[in-house]
């Protein structure tokens, strides 16, 4: 048996891009309620229905028959002892194609942590921004990049 034939029988690496859903710092937006109501099987089904290809590659967010379903991790920030984003990074490096929902208010100073983790795993970070009454009573500030770093507007 040739090496090529033998290697064909090995499991293929899961090269799908991972996701990190995070909540920009909007206290009282119902993030924990939303996170506790997420059903993994429904989220997986919706993800598989979406055509979220990357650079014309074949549906990098879909589950192919030779790949198992993605792992869904919902990590509540209040339950983590120690550095939250360090734990997120460790878990994402172990399973880069997972769908990770960060149940934690993420202040602007931590947005770069989320982006760094995603760049390490070739993942995508998705901010979850509520609409409706929550936004009518919330002021959102943003960071603007300058030559020497970031500053608040």
Can you tag this structure with a few keywords?
153 residues; alpha/beta; four-stranded parallel sheet; two-stranded antiparallel sheet; 33% helix
Describe the protein in words:
The structure is a single chain. The chain has 153 residues and is an alpha/beta fold. The chain has helices at residues 3-8, 31-36, 40-49, 84-94, 108-121, 133-136, and strands spanning 19-24, 72-76, 99-106, 124-127, 143-146, 149-152. A four-stranded parallel beta sheet has the order 2-3-1-4. The chain has a two-stranded antiparallel ribbon with strand order 5-6. A hairpin with a 2-residue loop joins strand 5 and strand 6. The protein starts with a helix and ends with a strand. Mean pLDDT is 74; it is low at 51-67.
Number of strands: 6
Elements, N to C (H/E): HEHHEHEHEHEE
> What count of helical segments does DSSP give?
6
Distance between the termini: 64 Å
Task: Give me the oligomer status.
Answer: single chain
Helix content: 25-40%
Number of domains: 1
Query: Average pLDDT, to the nearest integer?
Result: 74
Main sheet: strands, sense, barrel = 4 strands, parallel
- Spans of at least 5 consecutive residues with low confidence: 51-67
Shape: globular
By secondary-structure content and strand pairing, the structural class works out as: alpha/beta
Radius of gyration: 18 Å
Strand ordering within the main sheet: 2-3-1-4
Proportion of beta-strand residues: 15-25%
